Amino acid sequence: MKPYPCSHLVLAAILPTVLLACSSSPGPVVPVAPPPSFQPVASPNPVVPPTGISLDTVRAGRFDFGKMWTFEFPPVDYFRDEYGFTPDRAWFDRARLGALRLPNCSASFVSPNGLVMTNHHCVRDGVAEVSRPGEDLIYNGFFAKTLADERVLEDTHVDQLIDILDVTDEVEARLRGVSDEDRFDAQEDVFSEVQDRITEERGGEAAGINVEVISLFAGGHYSAYVFRRYSNLKLVAAPELQIGFYGGDPDNFTYPRYNLDFSFLRVYDDEGHPLQTDDYFKLDDDGLEPGDPVFVVGNPGSTSRLQTVAELEFRRDVSDKGVLEFVNRRIDVLQAFADAQPAVAERMDLVNTIFRLQNTQKAYRGQLKGLADPVIITKRTRSQEELQDSLEQPGRASEYGGLIERLAELQRTKRAQAAGYGSFLGLTSEEYEAPTLSRALLAVQVMNVSRGGNPDAASGMRTRFRAIDDVPAELDIALMAARFQEWAAGYGQDTPWVQSILQGRTAEEAARAIHARSLMADSATAVAAVDSGNLDPSDPAIAVVMAYIPPFSAFQQVLGRVSPEEERIAAKLGRARMELYGTTHVPPDATFSLRIADGVVTGFPYNGTIAPAFTTLYGLYDRHYSFDAQYPDSSESPWALPERWLPVPADLDLTKEVDFVFTADIIGGNSGSPVLDQDLEVVGLVFDGNMESLPGDYIYLPELNRAVAVDVRGIVEALAKVYDMSGLVSELRTGQIVR
């Protein structure tokens, strides 16, 4: 399973709708005061330290802000002091050029013939895409014995970072004098212009060049990343889902693990031949041992480690809490429907939807548990106190003084709109919102822009409107009822606008009545109403939208005022950290841009015992047989082995390592990252983190945080002895295609 950061890919589809779902209101926006029943979230209650721990003794750690080092600011001195070797620029260039980025994950070249290694879960959609009639490659796996057997993957690409340019002065010069309110839009325009200029200078998109401006240190530094994009990809190998996701959701974010989460792709050149490249990582399957240093090169998605304590407390009490409650309720709704109508749920692929939500649920539970840990909050408080003392010194106070206090004031402002954070998530989400309400929201927007005489905007909204698919009535009603429950819980059941929706009924009764009477409940009648211009504001679903728009607009207005100032302060604090600590002492937050993280192979204490650094194929079979009796139907067991693995192949070496853990700093987006030794030879493949790593969004604790990787020795053993892919193994070892 992907590190929880890939749970952020789920939330990326949810959270932006808070700001974007109602870009046009049906009339003047009238600020709405919080209803009498609503009480703003109080200031955080004091947290009690665990027994035997005095918070007075807690100090900030050197690596609390992580070890996701950037390639523009490589930590050469730290590597020398920590590991006894001093990598030169050529070493970092080799590490950078061998690494790749998929749209959702990381990857790497592992042969001179364009062979790419990444996780199974990173290409699962592609495996399904290349399945032919009568095939189910997700469950049965795919292994191309020859180049001719490899199958084309449409609509995907990998990016190779070929250059990094410092554009800080150019960006800052263009943004000088821009107001806080206009900075975001102006910054996007500047980024676009810089990207276009450099793209053309490097040969243009026709030459495969793609440029992104990356903000580091919350805007303290800007780099232009020049990528070479490869879009001609084929699938080479991917194991069965039961092997690529062994242990399922129960094992997700845990260790020990026995998961072979790997796959192989190949990049082809414009003439249709395997890409020839010198930028690849050789295989090292001779052996990795506890205590060995290792390095991860990948694209961690997003972290918030430079946030202030007040911002973290707001997440704990309001925003992250709201996300978890939203996810919990959607899981309940979808699971109840799947249990009641399994055949329909299978056709809708609800299993994968529920799994993504469960992944997010586990991640946010871990994050919130960490945010409630007094030791973690105290560590962050200590580092903030040190920063604040430095900012108040003569020479800095005029520019940086009071910024941390101002951020705390802004969090208090947002707390007054706490109900909105749990009430307006996912309003336009295709998977988590009732289609009836999604259509009603777009219908209101269509009416609004049509009155405003904007035919282009109306046309785009009609296209989105027609794209909303029907779902079974019972699921639509259940999702609608869940939304009504959120509004009643957040704003109070007696609040006038909530009362106007419920009208004395339960949430389910109201949802059922609205579904029965609204034209928006059926795609055909809804599209006909929109196309004919016969939208009726009294339609019960449209009336629901009209009821919630005023509080939603008030919520948006607060965010619209606060967010730009938060971004400006964060950028100033980022520049201050650079001035105080330099660029190799405190790394910037992750931005799905290429980083290198270091660590050592080692187990960790858990459940009163010790997790080993490595697991073996013996353990894989033990999990299968230990749960065999519990699951008479093996198709229901997350630990059942596929047919190819049973009985145990006679020559399979069960002592071979399957997975291992190490202390490198990773997060979502690192899925598929190569794990390298000091010689930049690949020894593993990142696919997850342990449960203790879940607070990694805001702090890195090397004592317990562990990255989990597939060991290349297990991959090679499986390819050779189970999947009869000796040719692929030979290519990995020699660099020669022999198939």
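Next protein, fold it too.
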Amino acid sequence: MAEAVVEQAMEPATEPAAEPKQRDVQVGEIGAETLAFRSRSWTRLRFEVEYARQKGTTANSYLIQAPAVALIDPPGESFTESFLEELQQQQYYQRIAYIILSHVNPNRIVTLKQLLAVATYATVICSKPAANLLRVAFAGESDSPIMPEEEALNFGIQYDAERSFKLHIVRDEETLDLGDGHRLQFRYVPTPRHPDQICTYDAATGILFSDKLFGAHVCSDELWDAHWRQLSEDRRYYFDCLHAAQVPQVEAALQKLEPFKAKLYAPAHGPIVRHSLSRLTLDYRDWCQQQQAKELSVAMLYTSAYGNTGLLAQAIAQGITQSGVAVQMINCEYTPPSEIAQVIEASDGFVIGSPTLGGHAPVQIQTALGIALSTATKSKLAGVFGSYGWSGEAVDLLETKLQDAGYRFGFEPIRVKFKPSAEVLQQCETAGAEFAQMLRKTKKVWTPRQQIVDAQSDRTEQAVGRIAGSLCVITTHQNQQHQAILTSWVSQASFNPPGLTIAVSKQQATTLADSGSVFVLNILKEGRNLRRHFLRPLLAKANQFEGVESYLASNGCLVLQEALAYLECRVQSRMECGDHWLIYATVESGKLLELLGVTAVPHRKSASYF
């Protein structure tokens, strides 16, 4: 079948600048009787860090048009209308016999409900954890009891006065024969982030529908990965954001899927993997090994009632991993106590996150806390966070118990009411980075001097650490929010026009992402406390500039009154440099705020931390 694209009308080629592309659905044949529906967003779809490369994304669904028609992974509610319109153009639309859900989330349920209104005879296939989520979502009851396993193999869900649907809980290694050789095989591959995840293999086409594995948040007109070398950085970034903190589970999934000998990977996001299948598989294994080889590791223990605490956990973990420390995510709801104890014992620090339900922490978190108190030595660094709807007692419980036991905290406890915003998630990433830096210092304190190895890498880090730069605070204004970034990696780059370069970490660079973005560079004065103020992790709903005197510059960003001088700048270009972005900006105006004073300069002992 020839590839078809449904999209909004574009501006004529004669126009000086085209309008941004709208969301659309791309349809293409990827195998015998198998279509891919790529619901495309050409702009950043969500604010989580995994979308920060600003290259858009695709939500991939798949239709197998066998005698028994199967639809795999309908997209989220952002694409519900356009997806269903395109799906209805297929002749087999009303014959859908199975709807396979690789994982369940609230956005996908919105589309599923509308899909079931027309595919009235379809059976929904998913894992047991996913089935429990569906029962709660369709019943609208957060305390809906879990059906006993012996009753849950095949059952129906009534979701309004007139509608119901059949639900089948698939077992690991179970098969489903659609006819014409399309014999589907299912593998249960849970991870802490997606504890309900399954992958599906079609023997007739050799396609592995891999869900969150082997994807990338990139939107383009290319259905396949023909230019796969250009995808390398996006794929690695996707892995680091989604999988770096759950490497043991990813390795277990790769081992489970290896016997299939797939010819294609059909992931949830990005292009279909055909040309680089072997290379990408090897890359995943290498990236897993690199994570496990890191010197320091942190156990991230959490459970999430409505997904909010899970978002906080992922953001904190991202800040830790991007600082060069390994993280192992543990979703306590699905992890046995023996495994929790093993992970805590092997880690150098641990962080516990909990929602508050009925004024208490869930039983699974209370169990994990007890294990941590009895297993973790007092030399381990600790952290506490959580979300709540009303009072947040769970976070207070965790903080009090760990404090009374004598543990030191790597960041101030984080409390977030309801769903975290983009700013709150950024604060969590910063807290994770601070935890990693403090962990390094703590580890050095607790390591006997005679055990320190004078390796060449240590001497190199010490030498690089002697490079000093002016200590500055970058202030930006984006989405009606003022933000601050503390940095010392600043250097003059040009005389005419006056310009400078700044190196910022990738998670911080989102506010300086576009050419033309403006900011103020506040050059700090030695002997003042501004540095300490902006080093502190920001609590939920807190203001980064609270207690700091400031006023607006002409470009709309804040000038700190206690600064020695400030420069109003505009981004001209940026270049990726390892784990940082190098920003080149020109200076449009500036002012010396104090005639007397010395520029603050940080003195580091190693290049492994700021």
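About the second fold: The chain has a mean pLDDT of 85.
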